[in-house]
Each structure stands twice: as structure tokens, then as C-alpha cells.
Write a structure and sequence with these properties.
Layout (H helix, E strand, L loop, with lengths): L6 H69 L6 H7 L6 H23 L2 H47 L4 H11 L4 H13 L4 H11 L3 H16 L3 H25 L1 H24 L1 H4 L1 H4 L1 H24 L5
Helix pairs in contact: 1-8, 3-4, 4-5, 4-9, 5-6, 6-7, 7-8, 8-9
């Protein structure tokens, strides 16, 4: 019969054996569950990351698709017609009114040149300049002035839309507020957007048509932001707020460039006016000396060559000091 003194030692060895068996058989199961849980967690995180990346990729694809559609529309834009030129100048003339005014101006300038030169060719040249060149110059001048006024007022109109959206006002109502309270020509252009929406066009299409009437980069930016938000979603107030800041920065930069280029423009004006000023002074002090330029064949050729080279020089200087944004 075994002694009682060896019982504690045997019990201790039995307990160690039981713990060892438990460690060998049970712990792998527990560790397997833990590893499985870790794998499941990792798979879930990967799936969530893939979903986020997939959503980001889808949004980028939608934005790229929207930009492609806008670019395609811009490339496929119709030819600039006379009606569109008149609309860009901010005039309400019809084609008949335009041609009537052109005919009157051509007749006045042609008769004036005929009376001054006494030559029918001079009269025809004056009629062409008055009937074709002068009306086109008028439309171009009015268009540039209208675009400058539009660019000054557009950031304020965008700010009105941003504040309205942040306070819970619908985008259409914000545009109506601008069409009632903004300065011209922004007020009339936004009124046209509201009217085209009433005819069934979407907001993006209506804003895209605004670029046809006011063909400047600022309006193109505005149309892109609206179209992307309409087709891809997003925070419109934040996007328009960023656009307003960009438009103001562009205006500041344009002002700085204009101020820095004034010296070059003044020099160009002086250089271009110097030959005419010298010719005028010489015609007063020595009329017989300078009259050889238009009384002899060699003088006429010299005048023609000088006019051609002066034209090239003025166009070159104008190209050098012209900055586009």
C-alpha cells in the first residue's frame, strides 16, 4: 500500500498533467477563434476600405464624365451668329435694326469721306468702314464692358446663393433672389436662367446656356460647379463658396497685372503715336518739306510701307502686353 507522504506529489503531478493537456487541446481552439475573429475584423476593414475607395472612384468617374460632357458641349458649340453677338453686347436689337443702323452709319461716313477726299474710292472706303467696321467695333466694345461689369458682380451673386443654401433656402429660390436684387447685367442673366427653367430645362442646362451669352472663364467655372453638383451630388454651398473665393482672387490678380503692365502700355501708346505727332508738327513747321510724301510716287510708297510696318509694330506690342486669365 503506497505511503501517504507521496500523495501531495502525485496530486501536483496530476494537476500539471491536466493543465498541460488543457493547454495542448483547448488553447489551440481558443487561439483559432481569436485568429478567426481577427481575420473577420481584417476582412471587414478591408471591405469597408474597398467600399470607401469604390465610392471615391465612382464619384471621380462621375465628375470626369460630367467634365467630359461639358467639354463636348463647348467643342460642339454653334457658330456665333449676329443675334448672339447682339445679345452678348446687352442690346435688344433685331437683325433688321442692326442692318438699318449699319446702313445709316455707312452712308454718313461715306459721304463725309467723299466730301473730304473728293474721290469715289475714298467714299466707298468710308462707307465700308462706317457700315461694317464701326458697328462691329461698337458691339465688341459693348461686349467687353458688359463682361467686365458681369465679372465684378458675379462673386456677390454667388455669395447670395451660398448664404441662401446655408439657411435652408432652395437653390431655385436663391437664383430668384439674385434675379431680383443683383446689379445688371447679372440680374437679367439670372432672370433668363429662371425663365429657361420654367420652360422645362434643368438648372445645369440653364447655367450652361449662360456661358453662350457671357463667354468668360468665370461663367464656365460656375456652370461646371452647378453641373457636377446636379449630376454627382455634393455640398453645393461649400463648392460655390470656394468658387466665390477663386473668382475674387482672379479679379485681384487681374488688377495687379493691369497695374504692373500700365508702364508697358503707356510706352506702347507713346511709341505708336510718335510718328503721327512728328508728322503733324512737321506739317505745321515745314509743309513744303513733308508734302512730298503724298505728292510724289516715292512718297506714297514710303507712306504705304510705313503704314504696313507701323501696323505690324502696333499689333506686336499689343500682343506682348495682352494678358489672358
Amino acid at each position: 500500500m503506497p505511503s501517504l507522504a507521496g500523495l501531495p506529489l502525485a496530486a501536483g503531478l496530476f494537476a500539471v498533467a491536466v493543465l498541460a493537456l488543457a493547454y495542448v487541446f483547448v488553447m489551440p481552439l481558443l487561439m483559432g477563434e481569436r485568429r478567426a475573429a481577427q481575420r473577420l475584423k481584417a476582412i471587414g476593414a478591408t471591405a469597408a476600405g474597398n467600399a470607401v475607395r469604390g465610392a471615391t472612384v465612382n464619384r471621380r468617374e462621375q465628375v470626369a464624365k460630367t467634365l467630359g460632357e461639358i467639354e463636348a458641349k463647348a467643342k460642339g458649340a454653334t457658330k456665333v451668329t449676329l443675334e448672339l453677338k447682339i445679345a452678348r453686347a446687352g442690346l435688344s436689337w433685331s437683325k433688321r435694326t442692326y442692318w438699318t443702323i449699319s446702313g445709316v452709319l455707312g452712308a454718313i461716313v461715306g459721304l463725309l469721306m467723299l466730301a473730304i477726299t473728293g474721290s469715289p474710292f475714298g467714299g466707298l472706303g468710308g462707307a465700308f468702314v462706317g457700315g461694317v467696321g464701326l458697328p462691329m467695333f461698337l458691339l465688341r466694345h459693348l461686349r467687353k464692358r458688359r463682361i467686365a461689369r458681369f465679372n465684378r458682380e458675379l462673386p456677390n451673386a454667388v455669395d447670395v446663393v451660398v448664404r441662401g443654401i446655408r439657411t435652408g433656402i432652395p437653390v431655385g429660390d436663391c437664383f430668384r433672389m439674385v434675379s431680383r436684387e443683383a446689379e445688371e447685367p447679372v440680374r437679367s442673366e439670372f432672370r433668363i436662367i429662371i425663365e429657361t427653367q420654367a420652360l422645362g430645362l434643368s438648372l445645369g442646362e440653364s447655367v450652361s446656356r449662360l456661358y453662350e451669352r457671357v463667354p468668360v472663364p468665370e461663367v464656365n467655372f460656375f456652370a461646371i460647379v452647378i453641373n457636377i453638383q446636379q449630376q454627382s451630388g455634393g455640398n453645393l454651398s461649400e463648392a460655390l463658396n470656394n468658387l466665390s473665393r477663386v473668382l475674387r482672387e482672379r479679379r485681384k490678380m487681374a488688377g495687379k497685372v493691369q497695374a504692373m503692365s500700365m508702364e508697358a502700355k503707356s510706352s506702347a501708346g507713346i511709341i505708336a503715336a510718335l510718328p503721327f505727332a512728328v508728322a503733324g508738327i512737321t506739317s505745321i513747321t515745314s509743309p513744303d518739306y513733308i508734302s512730298l510724301l503724298w505728292t510724289t510716287d516715292i512718297g506714297r510708297l514710303a507712306l504705304l510701307g510705313s503704314a504696313i510696318w507701323m501696323t505690324f509694330g502696333i499689333l506686336t506690342i499689343k500682343k506682348m502686353i495682352a494678358f489672358d486669365f
